[in-house]
Amino acid sequence: MMSETVAVPLWLAAAAALLTAWALLDRLLVPGARWFLRRRARRLMEKLEKRFRIRIEPFKLTKREVLVERLVWDPQVQAAAEAEARAEGAPQEVVLSRVKTYAREIVPAFNAYAYFRIGYGLARALARTLFRVRLGWADRGALENLPPGATVVFVMNHRSNIDYILVAYLTAEKTALSYAVGEWARVWPLQTLFRAMGAYFVRRDSKNPLYRKVLERYVAMAVEGGVTQAFFPEGGLSRDGALRPPKLGLLDYMLRAFDPDGPRDLVFIPVGINLDRTLEDRTLLADIDPAVPKKGLASTIATTARFAGRNLLLAVENRWHRFGYACIQIGPPLSLRGWCRLRGLDPRALPKEARIARAGELAEELMGEVGRVIPVLPVALVASVLASDPERRCSELELKASALDLLTRLEARGARAYVPRQDLDYAIGFGLNALRRRHLLLEEDGLLRANPAEIALLTYYANSIAHFLVAR
Length: 472
Fold this sequence. Notes:
Arc Repressor Mutant, subunit A; 8-stranded mixed beta sheet; two-stranded antiparallel sheet; alpha/beta; about 475 residues
């Protein structure tokens, strides 16, 4: 009979309900959400163009799958895939599958709404919660007269993982940056957020020639597409606080595809970053101390949790202070077209050894410019005085006088200090108090001295400006 009731097991009914919900989500809600976000992103970009004259490059707005396909079928990538298939004796379909995996891993999925609304909001809140964020000196005249249509690359020193956030926050009213990020960020939900903000993922230690070719061609595509980028030539965080020798990987990729007579110039902008407190300072020092056992993931998470817990407790007790000043300074841009013409070279025509040598020359020049614009901050200044003579005991007035003398010598060598409130006495006092709170500076019988157990940490902060004092 048609009116008879049909009994269905509970598990089957639940499965049917889940499948129905999934179908509704896939066919109705997801497309609707995409349409809504694209509409909001278009409106946001219109506002940004009117208010700040920010223009998002068409390359960034291209659908991710289109970029992936374009990268997979790039002639140079295909030639590298064929060479690997022959070398391994593997079917070409297997190697092509690897290429697609690499391309999907590297190519971002930029979303203007995610970048300027979600990402900028998070970056602003986090940066301003942790630090007194400042933009120091900048060569504004040169920055306002960049060649029309040039691809801009911000070149920076790397002190902390918060560098990404600081620079993105301080440049958000001018441009949207695309970063190369390491494998540490390929975890949910960071991976999705970084992709939406235009970051591309890099296996920094990979020696696989096919992977390197796919990465090289993506970087070349982004440069040709005018995507504003930011990268750290040092290739990783400074472990001892000093500038590290530059690595040539990404810079060489940019150089080898550059046409000095092409329609688009490539302009490097040096950015110097300094912090009164690097959140990872003790961990970084432990990495280069052979006497300290290396920590695993669980130990790292536990250390981070303890650090966060201590600071939350201080906040509850109303004894928490921000971690001092975080400052960036921006130097004069360097045109790659002008750099090549001055030397009469076309990077594309150079053999590998000669091109690598030229890339090294360019990297050293860029790192020199970055070093020149690293700001002198209160903690670095006072730490330099203490680290230079760890056994010294002196009054606060004598320590301030030594700091002023050091600052005069630094400025004579081209350094630029960020002086809070334009008050040197306040600035040096701020540095003293910051070191007191961390017990790096001790006071005994009215005299100040460096904590003998913390000389390595004081030297770490002194190293951030030590390059200004090196004989030239």
